[in-house]
Structure formats: C-alpha cells, structure tokens
Amino acid sequence: xxxxxxxxxxxxxxxxxxxxxxxxxxxxxxxxxxxxxxxxxxxxxxxxxxxxxxxxxxxxxxxxxxxxxxxxxxxxxxxxxxxxxxxxxxxxxxxxxxxxxxxxxxxxxxxxxxxxxxxxxxxxxxxxxxxxxxxxxxxxxxxxxxxxxxxxxxxxxxxxxxxxxxxxxxxxxxxxxxxxxxxxxxxxxxxxxxxxxxxxxxxxxxxxxxxxxxxxxxxxxxxxxxxxxxxxxxxxxxxxxxxxxxxxxxxxxxxxxxxxxxxxxxxxxxxxxxxxxxxxxxxxxxxxxxxxxxxxxxxxxxxxxxxxxxxxxxxxxxxxxxxxxxxxxxxxxxxxxxxxxxxxxxxxxxxxxxxxxxxxxxxxxxxxxxxxxxxxxxxxxxxxxxxxxxxxxxxxx
Length: 397
Ligand SMILES: Cc1ncc(COP(=O)(O)O)c(C=O)c1O
Prior knowledge:
Aspartate Aminotransferase, domain 2
C-alpha cells in the first residue's frame, strides 16, 4: 500500500499513486502557485504589448527585489535566466580565457555544468582541473582542503556547488568562497539546489557569480532561475543571447538591465511568480522559511538513517553536510556506466513495481551508484520507511 504524505501535501497536485521522493530533480509546484501563473498569463494575453511594455516591467522588478532580499543580494547585480545551466553557461562563455588558465571543478559537480567548463577550456587552450573528492568524508575541512590544494597560480575560477547533485552534499561553500577568493580565484557558485534549502547571504560572501534555481526548492513554475554578478565583474559578462541591449546607449547599469532583461520574446511568468511563491510557501509553516529548511533537513536526515539501515550501511558524511537532499551508495556489483536514455534499471524498478519516484544515479567519476532522497513539506517519514522496505525486497531477490 502506498504510504501517506504529510498533512501539507494537499497544497501540491502530485499523483496520489506515487511516492514522490525526488523533489530535487525538477521541484514540484504547488497548486496555488500554478494558479498565480495562470492569472499572470491571462493578464499577459489580454494585451501582450501592454503587458510586456509596462506591466511586466514593474512585476519583473518586484521579482528581482524578492529574490535579492531572500538571498541578501544587491538587486542591481541580479538578473533572471531560465535555469542554472544557463546561468553557468552565461558566465563561462563570457570569460576570456588564456592558454594555461585553469578552472577548478570538484568531481561531484553537475555533469552539464562540468561539460560547459570543458567546452570553454578546450576552445581556448585553458585547462579543466578536476578535484577528486571521495563520497565518504569525515569532515567539511577534508573537502575544503582538497579543493584549496588544487589551486595553482594559474587558477582563475572555481565552480562550487551549494549542494551537489549526484551526491546530495551540502558543500562548505561559505568557507570555500572566502578562501578561494582570498587566494585570487573567482568563484562561480552553483546554487541550483540552494535557495530554500540552505541560507545564502550573497552580500556577505561576495562570490564573483552566483546562479540558482527558483524552480527547485522555492517551487516556482519551471524555467525560473537567477544569476547575480558582482559589481566589478559585470563588464566581463554578456547574456547568452546578444539582443537589443548590446547597441543601446546608457549607463553601465542601464545597459546591464537592458541586455540581460530582454534576451528576446519569452514567457516571463515563471519569474513573476517568485514573490508569490516565496510568500505562499513561507506561510505554510509558522516559522516561515527557516522552519521549512529545518523541517526538510531533519526529514532528510531521518530518511538517510532509514536508507542506511535498509542498505546495511552507515551514514557516509557528517550531518552538517545534509540539507534537504541525502544520498547513500547503492550496492552494485556490475559495471557503473554513464546513464543511457532509458534510465537506471533500479530507478525504473522502484517506480514500475513500487510506485517510488527516486533517483538512482550511476556516477562514473566515483565508480558508484547513488540513491538520493529529497525531503519537501509534502513528504512523510512513512514514505522513506516504504522505500527502505522496497529496497530490501529488491536486494533479497
Ligand atoms: C548542482 C546543479 N547544477 C545545475 C543543475 C541544473 O539545473 P537546471 O536543470 O535547472 O539548469 C542542477 C540540477 O539538478 C544541479 O543539481
């Protein structure tokens, strides 16, 4: 029998027959936020010109202010992109790299972003330097030291995740940003899994660049992400789409707004839902966002314990490295190869036979398969217990 979800699950329209333990991949948007998007779309279509020329400009700015306030960033450096992949590409493809320059990437990084690094380094004679970090670590310092040890006089940039994708690790990103930038290495903070699961203070940390998704943990409609560029780096970065703003006159700031905010015709409603989503989700629990983060983290930690018990293993990392995601090694004797289009067989089995939506990821860089759980307000401990029981049945076969 499918286990229950939490009492808050009625705010989402998730399939009742699925145990949804993968908020991390694409988020899940509450019904009220989808309704807000529909209202905005109806306004847009009642006069698209008026909406684009006037109405959306004010709403856009409100969204810029809302996400800036949420992560304490300077609104003048904030712009929107469709997803974190685009944010990472925007920065990387703008940089002028010289032969021999090095870009650091830990081997837990999201493969798409790692690929973007390989693309820009290979076309310029620069070098991708991969920092090997094991999955099982004793402390955050172990991670920090491995990354700092890889810095050389040629290192120009490091891609640091707030929370890693395949391994669900909350990185000690605050320390990494400070220490790397102190050594003259710019940090591109990949906060695809950031806002809504870890507190972020951009004005305090001052990363050269940070991009993050709203469509994951802030639960906005898909296609809603941001890119913040520090003031002194703005002149080096252009949007992926060169559009009208390129030939416009005006101050640097006016040009920044025009160039980044008008990449061509697009549906702005995913971004325009940010203020509503922040307020709506924050209002679901008494303690607002800090409580959401704490609740989800506690549930992820509990879920990881259940998973470890089922898989007869121990927690691989300290709890300080857990946010709303947690991964554990999946016992696998076979070869660990890059995932094909058909999806991982264990993932498929869990879904097809047990109705569980949970990622099982073959991470070739570690030669390991990971099973990764997410915890969002709609989840309940019983769902992880059901996952554990289902895994035992699979392993007993
Ligand atoms: C660390 C990291 N970076 C980037 C991304 C890409 O996000 P998107 O598909 O929204 O571009 C993900 C997605 O899960 C991620 O986990």
